[in-house]
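Bumping my old thread because nobody answered last time. Still need a sequence for this structure:
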């Protein structure tokens, strides 16, 4: 096995270790549904194996189905999350045996397959990148489910760099064109393609994500009770839901508290705010006299190198993420303090654009000009329209394998259980 195949094998091993760690709890925790927004954990566990079987064994290698009778059960597009507990799911032990059997065959395929061949699924190991990223995305979903369950035991408090208060509040991105999307990253998804030029006017964008202290000031100023700051549909959602703070926050006296994986603790005021919906982010931005950045503004501030006139894979350059530049991979189960990663700054000086919290943008999830579905429409195409807002950057729970400056995430604007935050922007005053 050559070096590239060995790297793929290592990535497959690492993501599977992660999945098994998140599903090592008692069976009762795995089979229960902790929220109608989320699947039972045991569904996610078997689903990643079924997806791997479908794309590597069947589509890429032409191997006969192992368990065709479960395909319908683990088809994410046939059964909404709220209905999945009623399905005849594989139990935890059987799910583990199934995904282990799939993985053994996948490693055999990896050893034999030609990664330089003309088949798009094979070329550059795309099909393996597809299943590795897919499983990491489900692992992050599992973490959100575990947070909703309130079960302790997953709080990792590894040391993170200290924050730093100095530096400008905003950075300026001059007017001009940049290349959005990618034509070169081999494991990029179809919605990140094709690369295309976008010409933007100049704008300011926050150097750092909005922090808990600033967000608490919005709450204390009556931000949740003033319809001036809310989009009409956001105000309806706010009144209907009774929301008055980020998810998992509660106030006792003068202190804000949060619940994090079953642990109640004071809200760290120097961290980026997380567990806020798009509507909350949009309302805060209006209150602050700003707005949310468009997706294009976010990507230019994050990844464009104006001197080299090319896009970077990460804000800091092409080098793989390391602990000194970004908070990724669940090293700690929380965002890092604001200003913790000056070495991870973009060419324009924006910091913490990768890791810590997914950042809401003002854009709907739409195809780029010239978009083509690959390898299936249900990954991106069926979600295009005016239902889902785009999120960028990845969170502390996202793995580096599924993070880059061009990566696009999306969700309903009411969603808060995911590890979401935001930063603001404003138009250059003429």
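Sorry it took so long. Here it is:
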């Amino acid at each position: 096995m050559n070096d590239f195949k060995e790297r793929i094998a290592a990535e497959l091993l690492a993501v599977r270790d992660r999945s098994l760690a998140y599903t090592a709890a008692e069976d009762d925790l795995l089979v229960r549904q902790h929220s109608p927004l989320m699947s039972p954990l045991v569904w996610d566990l078997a689903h990643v194996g079924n997806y791997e079987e479908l794309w590597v064994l069947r589509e890429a290698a032409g191997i006969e189905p192992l368990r065709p009778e479960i395909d319908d059960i683990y088809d994410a597009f046939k059964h909404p999350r709220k209905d999945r507990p009623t399905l005849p799911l594989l139990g935890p032990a059987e799910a583990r045996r199934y995904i282990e059997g799939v993985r053994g065959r996948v490693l055999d395929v990896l050893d034999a397959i030609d990664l330089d061949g003309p088949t798009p699924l094979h070329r550059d190991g795309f099909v393996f990148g597809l299943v590795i990223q897919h499983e990491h995305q489900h692992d992050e979903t599992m973490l959100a489910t575990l947070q909703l369950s309130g079960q302790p035991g997953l709080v990792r408090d590894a040391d993170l760099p200290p924050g730093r208060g100095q530096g400008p509040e905003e950075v300026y991105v001059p007017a001009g064109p940049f290349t959005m999307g990618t034509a070169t990253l081999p494991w990029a998804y179809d919605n990140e393609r094709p690369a295309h030029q976008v010409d933007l006017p100049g704008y300011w964008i926050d150097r750092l994500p909005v922090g808990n202290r600033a967000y608490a000031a919005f709450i204390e100023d009556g931000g949740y009770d003033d319809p001036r700051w809310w989009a009409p549909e956001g105000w309806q959602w706010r009144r209907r839901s009774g929301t008055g703070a980020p998810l998992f926050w509660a106030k006792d006296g003068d202190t804000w508290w949060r619940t994090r994986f079953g642990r109640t603790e004071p809200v760290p005021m120097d961290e980026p705010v997380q567990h806020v919906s798009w509507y909350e982010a949009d309302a805060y931005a209006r209150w602050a006299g700003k707005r949310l950045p468009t997706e294009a503004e976010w990507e230019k501030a994050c990844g464009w190198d104006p001197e080299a006139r090319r896009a970077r894979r990460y804000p800091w350059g092409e080098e793989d993420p390391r602990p000194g530049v970004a908070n990724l991979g669940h090293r700690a189960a929380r965002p890092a303090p604001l200003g913790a990663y000056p070495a991870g700054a973009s060419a324009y000086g924006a910091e913490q654009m990768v890791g810590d919290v997914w950042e809401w943008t003002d854009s709907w999830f739409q195809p780029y000009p010239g978009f083509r579905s690959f390898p299936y429409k249900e990954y991106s195409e069926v979600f295009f329209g005016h239902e889902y807002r785009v999120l960028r950057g990845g969170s502390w729970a996202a793995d580096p394998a599924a993070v880059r400056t061009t990566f696009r995430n999306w969700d309903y604007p009411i969603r808060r259980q995911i590890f979401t935050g935001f930063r603001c922007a404003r138009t250059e005053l003429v």
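The radius of gyration is 21 Å. Let me know if any region looks off to you.
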